[in-house]
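Revision sheet: structure tokens.
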Amino acid sequence: MVTTSLHSAEAAVALRDWRRAWPAALTAQYASRRRFLAEFEAPWIEEWRQQLDVVHEPSLACYGEACLGIGGTELPAAERAARRLVAHAPLAETGH
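Predicted:
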């Protein structure tokens, strides 16, 4: 579900369909930032956590772009997404 949401968000951003990108990116962002099976530790769980971490960066970028595209009351959300992206991946250009 997370990768499907991210793919939908990226496709909508590419088409500049901000109203479709926004909920898909938000879904991917929320799902990827939660700690997978937080109460357990195992090698296979860590692999899933790493995969979710990889999804989190582009989901933040898509969400920020969608918020900028929508404008208005979503502009503060774009700023928050950019700040989270810079904190998560300081060397990624998309956050800056």
